[in-house]
Amino acid sequence: PRTRRWLFADQLGPHFLDAPRQPVLLVESVDVFRRGRFHRRKAHLVLSALRHRAAELGDQAVLVRARTYREGLAECGEPVSVCDPTSYAARRLVRRLDDVEVLASRGFVVSEGQFAHWAGRRGGKRLLMEDFYRDVRRHHGLLMDGDKPLGGSWNYDHDNRQGPPKERTALDVREPWWPTEDEIDEEVRADLDRWEREEGVEFTGADGPRRFAVTRREALSGLRRFLTDRLEQFGVYEDAMMAQDPWMSHSLLSVPMNLGLLDPVEVARRAQEHGREHDVRLASVEGFVRQVVGWRSYTWHLYWHLGEDYKQRNALDARTELPRWFADLDADAVTANCLHHVLAGVRDEGWAHHIPRLMVLGNWGLQRGYHPADLADWFWRNFVDGYDWVMTTNVVGMSQHADHGVLATKPYASGGAYIDRMSDFCGGCRYDPKVRVGEDACPFTAGYWNFLAGHREQLEGNRRMTQALRGLDRLRDLDGVLHQESERGSAPP
Ligand code: FAD
Ligand code: SF4
User: What is the pTM of this model?
Assistant: First the structure.
């Protein structure tokens, strides 16, 4: 018989086993939830996924409830093997434990060895996502026509990314697939209530019906619904935001993918096949495949490539502590319509799509100088799909520019004009995106100019910022903006 396979809670798909009947160890550790507050929905999803997997495997699996992983392994009492886990801390842990054989990681489009080889061949040149993505497409034969990209272009971004449709409050698209909760979910809910009541465990956010897939079967249902009813519009509105429709045409698959229930290449292949058979708009299929095998995998490999210290980078010297209202997801304290809605989504669902994360929450944190590692920690704890590997690069690099341009060539800072163009938030807002100073001043617009003024020296060498800095020089009311922003402090906008 094969060695028992220890599965972490983000290694729950069939590809983490060597054979369908391999014995399994699952460890549920309560201590994880004692180390600072996590979103209640996130705790629910992880525990539900773990317990569903145990139920599915029946006698084949041992589910140990223990305070720590070490105690869980001791209780199991057998040697185990484990696929290399997904964070630096977990990798250190598995290497310190006795009787644990550590295997190569699984579940990403290329292995860590293949990525290292790819990066080595670039000879110190920038590791661009676009180059990586094209090589992954060639390697797996995804959306290819011989050795050329399908349709003649690698990238259809120019056909995507429109603002929200006018005169509608929600996209004209079928709802996402929603799970039906079962007795395992009820049991998880009762346990979480008890931990809160009796064991002093504290959570953030609100409880509510489970929204994301936690089993392989559910994940495939979610994927199917996305492909048949939602993929067509994915690309067009990928970057748009609507106050009454947070889900828009997004796939909601980051949770099952990050739990290891779906393999990204499998997801991309199914999208490709569905697109071909049903003549789906190529720009949408390509846009989705780019996210899944491009951005997601690139993020994973950079997490390891850039090293553990990367998370502490703070190139813009941002030192502001996260204010209480932000840390507590107190959306009701916020007047600014965009931030109010997005923060309420985090409070109620532990989720927002990519653009609210980057251009509302991230942009806000960047403008106000929130400490990048603290902000990454906040995202990690409060988002249902948050894991160290995916949060670090997305928050520290992409959204906070704390790596001085390793991931993104310029900071994703923008004023209210961007939010106004890409959303329907501003129409219902008490502020005006065009106004910089005074009672009606949009806090994102004022914050943008304040950010540029405060970081002029660091940004001056960046050619992509030249135009923005010229704009700053032309401002006549800059003193007013700076005064207003310093008055605002860390109060909710
Ligand atoms: P869709 O819009 O349907 O996209 C399809 C899939 O592409 C996603 O499920 C996801 O797996 C993948 N993807 C797309 N962009 C990225 C990216 N930049 N990095 C990694 N995967 C990507 N994603 C996470 O999975 N976990 C996180 O903790 C996370 N934190 C983020 C923090 C910030 C500040 C930003 C800007 C982005 C973050 N993302 C994170 C990426 C992205 O926003 C989410 O993956 C996506 O919004 C999840 O919703 P969805 O499944 O409907 O995605
Ligand atoms: Fe957000 Fe400013 Fe628009 Fe209000 S006016 S919704 S604060 S961008």
Answer: 0.96
